[in-house]
Amino acid sequence: MAASSSPSSSSGRPPPGVKFSRRTSSGRIVSLSRDDDIDVSGEFSGQNDYINYTVLMPPTPDNQPMDGDSSGGVRSSSDGKGGGRESETRRQRDGGGGGDVGGRSGKMERGMSLMRSNNKSMLLRSQTGDFDHNRWLFETKGKYGIGNAFWSEQDHEDGYDAEMSMSDFMDKPWKPLTRKVKVPSAIISPYRLLIVIRLVALLMFLVWRVMNPNEDAMWLWGMSIVCEIWFAFSWLLDILPKFNPINRATDLAALRDKFESPSPSNPHGRSDLPGVDVMVSTADPEKEPPLVTANTILSIMACDYPVEKLSCYISDDGGAILTFEAMAEAVNFAQFWVPFCRKHKIEPRNPDSYFSLKTDPTKNKKSLDFVKDRRWIKREYDEFKVRINGLPEAIRKRCESHNAREEMKEKQLAREKNGGVLPQEPIQVTKATWMADGTHWPGTWFAPIADHSKGDHAGILQVMTKVPENEPVLGKPDKGGLDFSAVDIRLPMFAYVSREKRPGYDHNKKAGAMNALVRASAILSNGPFILNLDCDHYIYNSQAIREGMCFMMDRGGDRICYIQFPQRFEGIDPSDRYANHNTVFFDGNMRALDGLQGPVYVGTGCMFRRYALYGFLPPRANEYLGMFGQSKRHARDTHHQSEEEEDSDTQPLTSHPDLNLPQKFGNSTLFSESIPVAEFQGRPIADHISIKNGRPPGALLLPRPPLDAPTVAEAVAVISCWYEDKTEWGDRIGWIYGSVTEDVVTGYRMHNRGWRSVYCITKRDAFRGSAPINLTDRLHQVLRWATGSVEIFFSKNNAFFGTQRLKFLQRIAYLNVGIYPFTSFFLVVYCFLPALSLFSNQFIVQGLNVAFLSYLLIITLTLCLISLLEVKWSGVGLEEWWRNEQFWVIGGTSAHLAAVIQGLLKVIFGIEISFTLTAKAAAEDEDDIYADLYVVKWTSLFIMPLTIIVVNIVAVVIGCSRTVYSVIPQWSKLLGGMFFSFWVLSHMYPFAKGLMGRRGRLPTIVYVWSGLVSITVSLLWIAISPSDSTNLSSGGDISV
């Protein structure tokens, strides 16, 4: 802003000069020019020269004090009567009126503002005499307005927009709840470049291999080239989805400010977060100990989430009374454990894990009574464990007592009917299983009979804790010796559910149990989000649910079908011999998929959107056209179609069944009415223009109604075995049936509809669980996963048949899920090739020439560099990466091979697949937590890896002996064969170590198999080996 100085009274031309100045608080103009006068004569001179011109600095808070009076106006220093900015503007527009002095005074006064204190001299700098602006801001609490200009509190008299006020700019800015953290370019760019280089090198190598066959051993060359082509294809399927890995971060503080802070729509600051139903599944209390399940339930009930918005369910698919009574004991102990965790902010909130920590429990604990409280709760937990471990014996004694009493009654009745004499025939009394209240247990009995066995029992639903109140309930000062007077003692609603089972029905294993639980929870609590956990996976981070909710409630969260958390395990041996942590998959592959359409669902630690689980389409989706999905367009809305329209011939041939809307949910009216409610409550808050499909703030503040008898009766009805008849449950709705890996199929169907998923890696592990560390159990676990993948490949869930809503690289990832077990055939053949080379004194190439070694070096180096960069962006350790490579060979030659064979038998001959449930119990030796690692349990899966080891060892011995004693040694062929044999043996080392047990002793059956294989291989070699010394020295041709 520039203002000209007062016009001169004389008509003469003033001396030329340009000055830069600033007006101080006292009205004095201070020159800021370096020179008093700047000569502008010459070409700039003339009648209209810009001379005698003073440039004044604008009167903003950067250099002048400005403040309003108590009435909101700006007072003028000329008269002290509070003339407003409007009158000053009018005087300036009218030419300043009042002559030269008045005009100059008005301009000077407009550049000034009064302070609340008239003593301005104290605010002047001591040496320069200039105004001390920093001190003015501090003493007057001055604020900047829009554009560093003062914003008057008078809204409608200063000529500004009346719809805006200072309060519009004082509100907290809108904050996103999550953000993407991209991998640094210094890592991801070389990573992608090396992938391209290795891909080109592989193509050139394969072309060279095809063009240069080994004429002396065509059979060996043919097998090797086929295997190498498949390995290149398999590597491409695995590496392509890793092109765009990303990281994500959440803002829990922003979540609290948005959903749990006082606002006009939420004056009391109640929680506006949606409800969450946590579902835990168990099947057999003998393989899944009740104490482990009880600790999982306790960690859920104590998690940091609004109590009134949290509900917990356990699905006992075995209908065992032991699980039921263990849950009742857990609820009783939760009355003390949950408030204790809230009072002292305990982490983790699984009591068994918490009391097993090796760190100092008093660290960061400020409460004076923490030590006393911890000692008391530890004593209570020890008693709780004793009660849980003693439940089997207590239930057995109770049942014997009740059955003896029933037998006495039957004998008495028989004696009365027989004239006081006990009849000769023995009296048959059913050995029932009794509950604590003296009634029959409706589930599975210890002595199974009709209507009371694992596959034949009634549905059971018991609400063990009621719906909590909407307001906090504080405890008492002396509740059991603990002071909970300032702690909320409410517990989340908890229900025990065991679905009905009857003979003649296909109950669909875990998927069927989860679908029954989804329906029951929709009737009882209807949380718009569902957290699925295994019984041995507990909440390790009490804020894990909030972390997942940040993604669901953020901008675009209405398109997310589920949040997958990584699986972390406890109790794994320090060396992780069998790659149980599986960090390469969870920290590498899953993180990379998060940069595409989202990670796959892995069965546990997953938060679902209930509406997406019902089979509905996302509110917005994209379609990817072209061979590589390079063209993107918005997907067309799919309207509701009747069954006749779906089956009509007028429908386009390109339509996909996954894009049709679900219709057949069953005959429960309450369930059907809960669907739109869950969809609405799962929407993010519409507090920003960029949020689409949102809900108004404060819509979820109403308290939940208490449960009544008709509601519970309806929940029992929807878990009956006949409810799913003539419905779409398991086909389009809920967990999908037809595969032992129902988790992968369920996630695939959601992605196929256009939904997205998110991978949530928290700083503190969200969940932790247990994994089998025994070799046999580990291989059976891998067998189950591979079997499910084979089933996916031969079903309609193959990604080849996916919709256009599936991204190209996401489709590649799902293709790899179904194809990777078939690599086992080629891997087994390739593991035998080194031995065959040593036996025949031939190699896969004519000779170790420069071209072969160069290609081998380039391919190996690029693979190593790619692995190093992958370790860098994923955070996986080198040892973990090597363990994963070793177990890939072990599992590929055993479990994957068996899975492919079983899958082919099921597809071709219809033979059903059975797998062993992974045992989660600890070993008998309680002194050593890793005792189960050394237990050797023989299984048929050991045969192929053991054969590979023995054959390669025998081949190395034979190859060395023949080369040493040959007239003309073939050292190049020996070195080539030995190099690959040692490559195979190094990968098999953990398997061999597992067979040796704790003290290195091999089982007898291992010696038998080794001897048998060695003798067989030796006889075969003698049979095919030429007898003359000439052929022996040169290798010769194979003759039988």
List segments where confidence is low: pLDDT < 50 over at least 5 consecutive residues. 1-18, 34-53, 60-123, 143-170, 639-654, 915-924, 1026-1040
Look at the structure and give the mean pLDDT: 80
**Strand composition percent:** 5-15%
Largest sheet, spatial ordering of strands? 10-11-7-6-12-16-14-19
What is the count of DSSP helices, taking H or I runs of 4+ residues? 31
Total number of strands: 20
Question: What is the molecular shape?
Answer: globular
Structure classification: alpha/beta
Largest sheet: 8 strands, mixed
Helix share, percent:
40-55%
In whole angstroms, how far apart are the ends?
104 Å
User: What is the rounded Rg?
Assistant: 39 Å
What's the helix and strand layout?
Blueprint: E1 18-23, E2 29-31, E3 53-56, H1 85-93, H2 99-110, H3 133-140, H4 166-170, E4 178-182, H5 185-211, H6 218-239, E5 246-250, H7 252-259, E6 276-282, H8 290-301, E7 310-316, H9 321-344, H10 351-355, H11 370-389, H12 391-417, E8 452-453, E9 456-457, E10 460-465, E11 493-498, H13 509-524, E12 529-534, E13 538-539, H14 544-552, E14 560-564, E15 568-570, H15 583-593, E16 606-609, H16 610-613, E17 622-625, E18 631-634, H17 643-647, H18 669-681, H19 709-717, H20 742-752, E19 756-759, E20 767-770, H21 775-793, H22 808-819, H23 823-840, H24 850-874, H25 878-892, H26 895-909, H27 943-964, H28 971-987, H29 989-996, H30 1004-1024, H31 1029-1034
Parallel strand pairs: 1-3, 6-7, 6-12, 7-11, 14-19, 15-20
Antiparallel strand pairs: 1-2, 4-5, 8-9, 10-11, 12-16, 13-20, 14-16, 17-18
Helix pairs in contact: 1-2, 5-6, 5-24, 6-23, 8-9, 9-11, 13-19, 15-24, 21-22, 21-26, 23-27, 23-28, 27-28, 27-30
